[in-house]
Design a protein that fits this description.
The protein is mainly α. Helix 2 packs antiparallel against helix 4. The radius of gyration is 18 Å and the shape is globular. The chain contains 6 helices and no strands. It folds into 2 domains: 2-84, Helix Hairpins; 85-116, no CATH class. It has helices at 2-18, 27-45, 50-53, 58-81, 86-100, 103-106.
Length: 116
């Protein structure tokens, strides 16, 4: 998996370089673009019921894949700017969350850790 992410990062850098887009890929712009793409993910689900959201049709599933990919691309570019290994960061965050939300207190509850 790490190899695939590394190759994707390189491809993204090359894609932007060939188009002279590095000048636009500042941390601020990448964060804003990622937020816009995440909002487009939300838009797919906006008026669906919970049941409908669990079973998207092929057209909406394809749209979702595109918007998730856009969000992921900007996330990777932003993380690369700060030399953040997202897998390591996610593992560390999962450990923190496990401490904040111990199974005995959090199981079956949607409360924030400060409300447990």
């Amino acid at each position: 998996m790490q190899d695939r992410i590394k190759r994707l990062k390189s491809a993204l850098v090359e894609f932007a370089r060939k188009r002279d887009w590095e000048q636009f890929h500042t941390p601020k712009n990448l964060a804003m673009a990622m937020s816009v793409e995440a909002a487009e993910v939300v838009e797919i689900f906006q008026w669906l019921t919970d049941a409908q959201s669990r079973r998207l049709g092929p057209r909406d599933a394809a749209r979702l894949a595109d918007e998730l990919a856009d969000t992921y691309i900007y996330l990777l570019r932003l993380a690369a700017h700060y030399d953040i290994d997202l897998i390591d960061a996610a593992v560390r965050k999962l450990r923190k969350s496990a401490r904040k939300y111990p199974v005995g207190k959090a199981r079956g509850r949607a409360l924030k850790y400060t409300e447990l």
